[in-house]
């Protein structure tokens, strides 16, 4: 008899992180209704059309229920349209049709969203991978309208009364090819009593009109009085025919919304159940599973399934149709750190497809994507596609040609594209010749130098693993370029001018300038591949530990620097009150694990538990900064398991301090890896002793293959640190250079 699947969805709160705005982020999320890595998500909309903050917890009115693809409010959205139920008098303009609501009348789960407006209308939504099932219930005796909004840019809408359908397309978004269209089909279960279209954002209504094409256009349907109506929705970037096929395939067998809701719940519970935690508090389990939910949303599947069951896709890079898999909506500067290393454990098959799609994207665009949304944007910095590729390869995911990856990377780092600062390599000539990027005409130069050095290490790792000495020799020297921006007198990484002199008037608490969304206190640690070498620059192990201690204990003051004003990341650092440690942004998120490299793992254990307990929860204020396509959530999930990948591109995961008494990871191959933390609780954060499959285990790291093979990591936890464990050289995680005493 098969064991009953646990209902872990009860712990997930999709409102986590939604109490945010541009000045202060508790996640900058929206209550996502969708399946894992789904091509389309859905969300209630409180903000105006085009507002990146599409749902804010403090808002009191909902304007519509959108199909969404947004991976960050700073990048906005694309391929958007919405439906909105309206009763009484017909209103189509977004301000006029908006309805008030209260959160006690709202239920927010990944598989099912429900809200009852103050006017009595109830909306329910359940998702599929490429569509959704909606149901609108209207008060008795009131007129019942459903309004379709084609959003801000071009849209084409056709009403088909005999078929009970609306079909058409929308074309909106910043990073889309010229021929991009999102073809949609919406199938209703009731006849239309009336219909019409509207233009100019709703200023002009044409009753009884069946078609409209233009900007800021929409349509409405009249269903009579006091009715309940269901709508099945699917859309495609390939063709109207594919949209209809997808609707039939994903929703055809679902007569009622409950069918879609149940199917979506099974998908999510199956995934959440693959990481089964025991012990901890109810609040900790809610935080864990809410984060695990968000860790499995991006990158989005950008491929569709044809009538033969084969994947194919519209390329967001060149606008052509290809066979195979494509993924998008991800900023690698954020996610190479934790989201991809977590997916390499949970989803190696998907990761294998993803790696090939990266090479396909590079061929179609001429460059690797760095932040796709859905096409090339070049936002942020670094060339972190190589980190993702090298990390997968080193962990045994070998579905792509490494020689092609290396050739593409060399092209990437010896030229500049026209899409933003991370399309190609800004300042690449100076980086190769001088060993650093001078500050002046180019900004954020020290941050770029540091991140380029790490990326070059990843290319070196990939080249060495396949025996390609040509590429290995190119990047072997470059991966030590971090040393060229270290100022031994100041004791920090710093910006340098064209003549090699240091940028004057240095203050390590000053943000911007040579750094990105941070300061020298945070960026000095961005040497993921050689923390031993960094320690030696500081004067050795004791100086390294002392500097780490200071990061967490110094004041949280800052200077706005070249930003000229306080940005939300500064505010979030102050609110965290953990010194200059700014967990609300990515550059510093590995630093709590750095004690492992200096033989003082008990300090890592204490710090990671403090960060998790203090900075995360499952509420609308659940994150200490931007959630960023699953990175912030993945950091929590993997850290809560007692693991963390400080240096993607190697096979190692650092050992931290797990939150739960027991965690069982069911791998794709059916094997189970168990973290059995005996005696674990909020006070017992320290590892006294450990065994792996019954054998003594003193290392501060574990290999990916040891996890993939299944087994049991047993940790005996205590409220007192064991300062004799994990101190030996063999116990320390990978570093290019041995750390001096």
TrEMBL record:
Residue span(s) of domain Glycosyl hydrolase family 92 N-terminal: 11-236
Origin superkingdom: Bacteria
Pfam families per record: Glyco_hydro_92 (PF07971), Glyco_hydro_92N (PF17678)
Region named Disordered: 721-741
Bias-annotated ranges (Basic and acidic residues): 721-732
Residue stretches in coiled coil: none
Gene3D superfamilies: 2.70.98.10, alpha-1,2-mannosidase, alpha-1,2-mannosidases domains, GH92 mannosidase domain
Listed cofactors: Ca(2+)
Glycosyl hydrolase family domain ranges (all copies): 242-718
An annotated Gene Ontology molecular function: hydrolase activity
InterPro entries from the UniProt entry: 6-hairpin_glycosidase_sf, GH-type_carb-bd, GH92_a_mannosidase_put, GH92_N, Glyco_hydro_92, PNGase
Swiss-Prot/TrEMBL keywords: Calcium, Hydrolase
Signal peptide: none
Subunit structure: Monomer.
Descriptive protein name: GH92 family glycosyl hydrolase
Organism: Olivibacter ginsenosidimutans
Lineage of the organism: Bacteria, Pseudomonadati, Bacteroidota, Sphingobacteriia, Sphingobacteriales
């Amino acid at each position: 008899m098969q064991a009953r699947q646990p209902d872990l969805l009860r712990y997930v709160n999709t409102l986590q992180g939604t109490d945010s705005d541009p000045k202060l982020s508790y996640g900058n999320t929206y209550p996502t209704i969708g399946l894992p890595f789904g091509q389309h998500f859905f969300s209630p909309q409180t903000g105006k059309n085009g507002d990146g903050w599409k749902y804010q917890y403090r808002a009191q009115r909902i304007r519509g229920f959108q199909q969404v693809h947004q991976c960050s409010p700073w990048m906005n959205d694309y391929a958007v349209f919405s439906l909105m139920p309206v009763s009484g008098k017909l209103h189509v303009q977004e301000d006029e049709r908006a309805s008030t609501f209260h959160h006690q009348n709202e239920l927010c789960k990944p598989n099912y969203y429900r809200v009852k407006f103050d006017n009595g209308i109830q909306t329910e939504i359940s998702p599929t991978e490429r569509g959704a099932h909606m149901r609108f219930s209207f008060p008795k005796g009131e007129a019942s309208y459903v309004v379709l909004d084609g959003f801000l840019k071009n849209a084409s809408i056709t009403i088909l009364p005999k078929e009970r359908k609306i079909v058409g397309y929308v074309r909106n978004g910043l990073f889309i090819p010229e021929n991009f269209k999102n073809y949609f089909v919406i199938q209703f279960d009731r006849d239309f009593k009336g219909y019409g279209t509207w233009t100019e954002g709703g200023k002009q209504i044409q009753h009884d009109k069946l078609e409209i094409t233009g900007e800021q256009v929409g349509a409405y349907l009249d269903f009579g009085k006091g009715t309940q109506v269901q709508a099945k929705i699917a859309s495609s970037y390939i063709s109207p025919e594919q949209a209809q096929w997808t609707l039939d395939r994903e929703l055809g067998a679902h007569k009622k919304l409950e069918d879609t809701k149940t199917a979506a719940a099974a998908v999510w519970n199956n995934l959440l159940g693959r990481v089964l935690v025991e012990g901890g508090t109810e609040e900790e389990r809610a935080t864990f599973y809410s984060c695990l939910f968000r860790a499995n949303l991006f990158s989005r599947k950008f491929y569709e399934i044809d009538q033969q069951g084969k994947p194919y896709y519209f390329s967001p890079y060149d606008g052509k149709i290809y066979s195979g898999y494509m993924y998008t909506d991800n900023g690698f500067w954020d996610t190479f750190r934790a989201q991809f290393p977590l997916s390499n454990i949970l989803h190696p098959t998907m990761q294998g497809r993803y790696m090939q799609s990266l090479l396909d994207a590079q061929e179609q665009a001429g460059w690797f994507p760095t932040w796709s949304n859905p096409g090339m944007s070049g936002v942020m910095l670094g060339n972190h596609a190589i980190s993702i590729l090298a990390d997968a390869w080193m962990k045994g995911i070998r579905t792509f040609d490494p020689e092609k990856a290396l050739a593409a990377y060399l092209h990437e780092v010896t030229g500049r594209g026209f899409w933003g600062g991370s399309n190609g390599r800004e300042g690449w000539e100076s980086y190769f010749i001088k060993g650093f990027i001078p500050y002046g005409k180019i900004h954020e130069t020290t941050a770029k130098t540091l991140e380029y050095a790490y990326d070059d290490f990843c290319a070196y790792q990939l080249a060495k693993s396949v025996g390609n000495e040509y590429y290995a020799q190119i990047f072997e020297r470059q991966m030590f370029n971090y040393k060229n921006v270290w100022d031994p007198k100041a004791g920090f990484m710093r910006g340098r001018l064209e003549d090699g002199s240091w940028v004057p008037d240095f203050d390590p608490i000053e943000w911007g300038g040579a750094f990105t969304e941070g300061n020298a206190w945070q960026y000095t640690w961005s040497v993921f591949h050689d923390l031993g070498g960094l320690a030696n620059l500081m004067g050795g192990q004791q100086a390294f530990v002392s500097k780490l201690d200071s990061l967490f204990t110094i004041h949280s003051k800052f200077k706005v620097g070249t930003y000229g004003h306080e940005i939300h990341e500064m505010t979030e650092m102050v609110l965290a009150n953990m010194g200059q440690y700014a967990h609300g942004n990515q550059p510093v998120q590995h630093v709590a694990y750095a004690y492992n490299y200096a033989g003082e793992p008990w300090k890592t254990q204490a710090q990671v538990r403090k960060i998790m307990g203090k900075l995360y929860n499952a509420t609308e204020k659940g994150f200490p900064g931007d959630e960023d396509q699953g990175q912030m959530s993945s950091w929590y999930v993997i850290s809560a398991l007692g693991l963390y990948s400080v240096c993607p591109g190697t096979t190692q995961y650092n050992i931290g301090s797990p939150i739960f008494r027991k965690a069982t990871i069911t791998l794709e191959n059916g094997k189970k890896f168990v973290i059995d933390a005996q005696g674990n609780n909020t006070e017992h954060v320290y590892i006294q002793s450990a065994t792996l499959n019954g054998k003594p285990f003193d290392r501060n790291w574990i290999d990916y293959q040891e996890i993939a093979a299944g087994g049991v990591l047993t940790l005996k936890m205590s409220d007192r640190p064991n300062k004799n464990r994990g101190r030996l050289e063999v116990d320390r995680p990978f570093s290019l250079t041995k750390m001096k005493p």
